[in-house]
Structures are given as C-alpha cells and as structure tokens.
Write a structure and sequence with these properties.
Layout (H helix, E strand, L loop, with lengths): L4 H5 L2 E7 L5 H6 L7 H7 L2 E5 L9 H12 L6 E5 L2 E2 L18 H9 L4 E5 L1 H5 L12 E2 L3 E2 L2 E2 L16 E3 L6 H12 L15 H4 L10 H5 L14 H4 L47 E2 L2 E2 L8 H13 L3 H7 L16
Parallel strand pairs: 1-2, 1-3, 3-5, 5-9
Antiparallel strand pairs: 4-6, 7-8, 10-11
C-alpha cells in the first residue's frame, strides 16, 4: 500500500543497509511478532523504504531511491545499518562497494547518515566492528560510532543525527529481535533520547540489565556449584567461560522465540553485546589467576567474591552439588511427608 499526503507525513520512513554482514541480525529480526517484521513495523507507523533481503526493488530502482534520499526529495527518518563498515584498503572503503556502482558502502552510509533523523547500528558489527574487526582485520572494519571501545568509528567521534543523537547501537550477535523492534518503535514515537542510551549508545531498556538476570542456572551460581562439562546443568562461570554476570542484556528475562537462551541451551554467554567480544579470551574455558576467575561479576570486589564463594561452597546442598555435574536432575528436591 502506498501512503500519501498528510498520512504519509505522520509516518516514519526507514531504510536498512547491509555492509560487512553475515545477515544474522536480519534473521533475528524476522523472528519478531506474529505478523512478520515489516507488518509489525508498519503497525507502529514505520514504512520500510527498502531492505536488501526483504524488498522486491533492486538495481536502478534502488539506486534512484538512494539519489532521491540524498538530494532530499524523500525524507529519511531512520537509517539502519547491519554489519561493519569496511574502510580498507587504506581508508578508501573499496573493499565493500555498492553493487552496480563504484561507490564504497562507506561513502553511501556517510551520505545517508548525514541526512537521517536517527542512525541505528543493528548488531555488534555495526556498533563496534564486531567479527570482521577481529585481528588481523585486513578489511579495516569499523563500527558506525565506535572502533572497538574507542569512540569514532566510520562516522567520526562528533557524529550526531538530525535529532542530535549519536548512533543508537542495538548491540548483540545477533541482537534479540525484541531489542531491534522496540528500539525502532521508540524512535518512531519520539520516546528515545540521549538520556536513554548508555555510554556505548545501547538503549538502556536492555542495557541496564545483565544476561545473568533470570538465568535458569542461578541456584547453581548461588552455591558456586559449577559445571565441569558443557552437558552439565551447573553454573558455567567458574570453569566454562560464561560471562553472563558481566554482560549487558535481558536475554534470560525475555527468552528468544519465547523459549530459550544461550545458557538454557548449554552454551556460555560470550558477552556479545560488548565491544571486543570477538577477541574473547577463554571460549568454553574460564581464564584464572591463582584459581580465581579473571572476569568477576560486575561491581563485586575480588576479596568479596573469594569469601562468598568459599562460604557458598561450604553450604552447598548435596542435591545441588550432584545435579550440577549431571546432564539431568539426579536428586530431586526433598519434600515433607505427605508430598506437601
């Protein structure tokens, strides 16, 4: 349906680009809602002008759309970029050119970001550089607003959109579909300001939480009853490299597809919403110094952790200890006589 006139001016226009991307963020976004991504966005007043994987338009039609956006014939409210900006070789951006043209994707993104009301980085690659930025990084991959932990990225440290916002980073590899859609609908409703973003540009509605919150393994964590193999039911932090106590995200509070999360599936949290996660030290194993995990829960001094861990382990019920080292419940909770 084509929306025109006054009704069109009240709606929010959006375009989605894919740069140095595997497409996983789009796959995640497709899991949202009951009517599909495009329909759900439309119901929130967002018109998707073009998406490289979901739109029918291609070739000259798309190039004409870009030209009309850049010259101002069509207003651009939200620019979404999925994937790293490949700035190589030597800052030219020629490693990633727009199909059918000689224009680097880096140049197109900068042109559209300069006119967009809000620019959104979809996924940790667009946020910080992500997987393509892993050493040795021959493509010179960058995020939009950050190069790893350093502010700047492909758009520069002083970038602000027409609404005076820095890049809004829906980080994650891939980000939860709810984070993507809720961020976009909040922008469309005018409900997302600079005060709603954390220091890395992540919306605080999910960035003010930890992946640890709501984890189904929390009883094991409390008693420091740890898994020793990936199939064990115990806490994955002490031996198997889980970073959920340090990682931004509410992914264990709102399960993926309504039913699962990384730790539910037996995989450790790798803190994929954080810059530098691609250089993770200790995938499936926990780095330690003198037997103490290097990555401790946020806000917890090392001495406190050591003391609490020793106390917790001394009080661990046999049921919890036995179950933590098994792939199923070995010892059920004891019940009072009569089963009550």
């Amino acid at each position: 349906m084509t929306v025109t006139g006054e009704a069109r001016r009240q709606r929010t226009s959006m375009i989605w680009l894919q740069a140095g991307s595997c497409g996983g963020c789009t796959m995640s976004a497709l899991e949202t809602g009951t009517h599909g991504l495009i329909a759900d966005l439309a119901a929130s007043g967002i018109d998707v002008l073009w998406h490289p994987s979901l739109s029918l338009a291609s070739g000259a039609e798309v190039l004409d759309l870009f030209d009309r956006l850049i010259c101002g014939d069509i207003g651009l409210d939200i620019l979404c970029v999925e994937g790293s900006i490949l700035c190589g070789p030597n800052g030219s951006g020629r490693f990633n050119r727009l199909a059918g043209t000689m224009k680097p994707m880096m140049t197109l993104v900068r042109e559209l970001a300069s006119i967009a009301a809000v620019t959104v980085g979809i996924g940790s690659c667009a946020a910080y550089g992500g997987i393509p930025a892993a050493a040795p990084d021959p493509a010179e991959a960058r995020g939009l607003g950050f190069d790893g932990t350093r502010r700047g990225g492909a758009l520069g440290p002083d970038y602000r959109s027409r609404r005076s916002l820095p890049v809004v980073n829906v980080a994650g590899c891939a980000p939860h579909p709810g984070w993507i859609v809720e961020t976009l609908t909040a922008i469309a409703a005018g409900l997302l300001g600079a005060e709603d973003l954390d220091a890395f540009g992540r919306p605080r509605f999910f960035a003010d939480h930890l992946a640890h919150h709501g984890c189904s393994r929390n009883e094991f964590y409390e008693f420091k009853a740890s898994a020793e193999r990936p199939s064990d039911r115990g806490c994955l932090m002490e031996h198997l490299g889980c970073k959920a106590t340090q990682a931004v995200g509410d992914c264990n509070q709102r399960r993926w597809n309504g039913s699962g999360s990384c730790t539910d599936g037996g995989s450790t949290c790798i803190a994929c919403t954080a810059p530098g996660f691609e250089a993770v030290n200790g995938l499936q194993s926990t780095p330690k110094v003198a037997g103490i995990p290097v990555g401790l829960p946020v806000d917890m001094p090392k001495a406190w952790f050591v003391a609490l861990a020793a106390l917790s382990k001394s009080a661990t019920p046999k049921r919890v200890r036995d179950n933590s080292r098994a792939d199923r419940v070995i010892v059920p909770p004891s019940r009072p006589q009569g089963g009550r």
